[in-house]
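Why do we care about 3D structure at all? Because function follows from shape, and shape follows, mostly, from sequence. That is the central idea of this module. The next example makes it concrete: a single protein chain, its amino acid sequence, and then its structure expressed as tokens.
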Amino acid sequence: MPRHQWIDSNARLADAAERWNGIIGLDTEFQRTDTFYPIPGLYQLVADTEIWLIDPLAIDDWSPLMRVLEDPATVKIMHSCSEDLELIAHHLRVRPANLFDTQVAYAFVSEQLSISYANLVKALLGLLLSKHQVRSDWLRRPLSDAQISYACEDVASLPAVHRLLSGELEARGRWNWFREDMALREAAPAIDPDRYYKGVKGAWRLNGVQLGALKALCAWRERQAMTEDRPRNRVVWDEHLLHFARPAKLTMALIEARLPRGLARRYGEALIDVHGAGRASPVEAALPRPLSGGQGALLKQLRAVGLDRAADLGMAPELLARRRDLEACLRHYALTGELSATYQGWRGALVGTEFATILDAQAP
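And the structure:
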């Protein structure tokens, strides 16, 4: 079993945190089967070659770790950190500063965006990691030797990977590009229940009054799921909310025709009330329609430019040519005559001029 320190008390956490400064690696293990929020099962932290495993089931004063995470002078190395950040935001109520996501960093110096941590360690260090504990129960105690070995492996190589990738980013003149993207990740806003409706499939077909109902229904469902700490699909599915948003009057009969009997009884009256309130506050701005044929052609041109530039630079194509980014840029340019925020900054320096030339073709 790898050498590590097990942190299972407030005092041990406070003592260990005194040694966490400069550069640390961080990972989390959690469960999220029947809950809205992830349940923390373990925090793993590495500094130089020392590893600490922190037990969330035994600690109630997290302030020492919170201070480290919020300290902009301390680099936090993580891999594919979005789910970890969601856990930290809910559990610790903090937003880590000075992030270094090794998956994102590798995308700037290779053509792979979504490489796994095990494959990254193999590619950069030639080490083989075991991944057989991914689905294990991280809330049971004591953890097995296999779980502990896996947890240690998941952070042990982070400092070495960070050194290699930092050197590559500097050598290729892409450090500032990477830091620009990391700053956006650090400042990303929390999910807003009042904006959820915009992502519901098919919502663009609704008129303003129906959108008002859908917006209210989605916001209610999100907050209900959060309050009950249940997966949103254990409350009401998106497709049901879309169906309920269409009629001028929502009735119990319509609800019972769609929802299981237990859910209809539990949430029916609330859905009816929310539906009525939402229709009384129509959404004025229509949601974007699917791209027209002409817009689709422009999108292909943008993508071709992004793909060619990424290939020339030997970097992941998604950094310059991800479809949702390109589509958002196309729509933004049609409204404002300017590139979207994504394609300003370092991306603008690489593809901005060509993008603007292409998008000028859609002007009336």
